[in-house]
Predict the 3D structure of the following.
Amino acid sequence: MAIVISPGRTKTTAPARRQQARFLREINRNARAHGFLIGSVLCFALFTWYPMIREVIESFQRLHLGNTTFSGLRNYRQITADPFFWQAWRNTLQFTGLALLFGFALPFVVAVVINEFRHAQAYLRILVYLPVMLPPVAGILLFRNYFMDPTNAGLLNQLLHAVHLPTSQWWGAAPSAMPSLVIISTWTNMGSAVLIYLAALQGIPGELYEAAEIDGAGLLKRVWHVTIPQTRTILSLLLMLQIVATMQMFTESFVTTGGGPESSTVTIVYLAYNYAFQFSNFNTAEALGVIMFIVLGVFSVLYVWLERRGNEA
Amino acid sequence: MAAAFATQSRTLISRAQLSRRSGRRVYWVSLCAVVLLFTLVFLFPLYWMITGGFKPTSELVRNPPSFVPTHPQLAPYRTAWDELHMGRLLLNTLIYAGGALALQLTFCVAAAYSLSKLRPVLGNLILGMMLATMMIPAAILIIPQYLTVLDLPLVHWNLVNTPWVIWLPSVANAFNIFLLKRFFDSIPEDILAAAAIDGASSLRTLRSIVLPMSRPILGVVSIFTVIAVWKDFLWPLLTLTDPGRMTLNVGVNSAAANMQENVLIAGLAMASLPTIGFFLLFQRNIMSGLTSGAMKG
C-alpha cells in the first residue's frame, strides 16, 4: 500500500515543494533588493516625501497659543492680501525676464562664437566656466563691494566715468537693483549653459551647413535655419530649467541687498524666508511654497504641452 | 595653422572662406578681440580679487584704480584668515562635502543597483516617486524640510548644527540615482548572470563587477555632489547657524559686513582659491563630466 501511495504522493507534493522553494527564493531576493534600497528610501521619505505632504497640510493650519488648528484658506488669504506678495512676484518676474534676456540668449551666442574658433577654444571655455566654480558668496560680494559699489569708487562706475557715460547706483537704488543682480548672476552662472550649448553645437553635422551654403544661405540664415533647429531640444530644455531656477532666486538678493532698496529685490523665496524667520509664521511660509509650486507646476505643464505641439507640427 | 583649420569638421563658417586671405584676417582679428574681451570679463575680476588682498584699503578704493599693488603686503590675508576663521570654515565645508560624497556614493549606488539589476517588487513605483521629486523646485521644500530636521519624526532627533543635516538630505538626490541607474542599465545582464553562476552574492557582484565598470559615472556623480555642497547657501544658512559649524559661504557672508575692504577681498580670494585650484587641476574631467551628465540627463 505504502509503496503504491508514495509515488503518488511525491507526484503531488514535489511541485508544491518546488513552488514553496521558489516563493522563499523570491522573498529572499526581494528582501536583499530592498535592503540595498532602504537607505536612500528612508532619506527620501524623511527629507522629501514627508516634507511635501507636511507642507500641504500645514499650509491649511495655524499655530495659535501653542495649539495647531485647522484654519482653511486663512493663510492663503493673508498672503494674497499682503502687498509684498504682489511686489515679490513683480520682482521675481523681472529677474526671470531679464535673466532670460541675458542668461539665456548670451550663453548661446557665446557658445556659437567659441565654436567657430580653431584656436584658444580650451582657454575660452575654461575662462567662461571659472566663475561657476567660485563659492557663490565670494563672487557676489566681489561684485557688490568692489565692482558695483554705488559710490564713484566702484570700478564699473570709474570705467563708465572714464568713457563719459552716466554712472549708475547699481544695487543701491531701486530701479537699477534688480538688473545689477541679473548681471552678477549671469556672470557667475553662464559657464555651465555655455558648456552644454558647446556640446550640442559639436553634434551638428557639417553637411547641413554645407548644403545651406550651397542653397545661398548667408551667415545669419545658417544660424537661423541650421544651428537653432539642430539645437532646439537642448535650447528649450535649458530655457525651462532656467526659468524654474531663476524663479527661485534668493542668494543674490540676500547677500547683495537684503531685499532692499524699497523692497525692490524681495523675491518669492525671500518672502517665504521672511515669513518663516522674521515673523516666525511657518504656516504662511508653507502656504506661499504651495502657491509657488502651483505656479511653477502650471508653467511646466504648459511647457510640456507646447513642446509636444511643437514636435507634432 | 592650415592643419588646424582642416582637422575639425566644418561649423557655421566654411574652411574655404577661412583660408581666403580676407577670411583669415577677419578670423584672427575677431579671435584676438574675443580672447581679450573674455579675459577682461572673466579673468580680470579674479585678478582684482587676488591682488586686492595685497593692497591697503586706500589703494584698493583709489580713483583712478591701481592695477598692480605698489607695496604688496601679506597683512590683509593674515588678518582675513584670523577674522573669518578661514581654517575652520574650509575644514567644515570639506567635512560636509566629504561626508555627503561618502553617503551618496554608498546609498545612491546601492539604490540604483537594486532598481536596475535586482528589480524588487514595487521597485518601479519607488523609482517613480524618487524621480517625481525632481519636478519640485528645491526652494519650495526648504521650510517644511527645516521643520523636519528640527524634530525628526518618530526618533525626535534635532539635526540642526550637526553635520547630519547636510549629509542625510543629500542622499535624497533623484538626479544622481537616475544617472547611476541609467548607467547600470547599460551593463549587460550576461556578465552579472555569469558572476551569479560562479557563486557571487549581489554585494560581491556590485563590488567586483559593476563598480569597476562604472568609474566614469561615479566621477560625474562625485563632482556633482561636491560642487552642490560647496555652493549651497540657503540650506546651510538655516541649519548651520553656530559660527563654529558654518560653511564657507555662510561664514564669509555673516562676517563680511564688519570687515575692512582690503581684508574682505583677501578673504574672498582665499575662499575661492580651493575650488579654482581644484577646477584647474581637473578641468578636463569636470567639464566633460558636466556636459555628458547634463546632455544625457
Observations:
- Residues 2-80 of chain B form one domain.
- Residues 1-7 of chain B have pLDDT under 50 and may be disordered.
- The two ends of chain B are 37 Å apart (CA to CA).
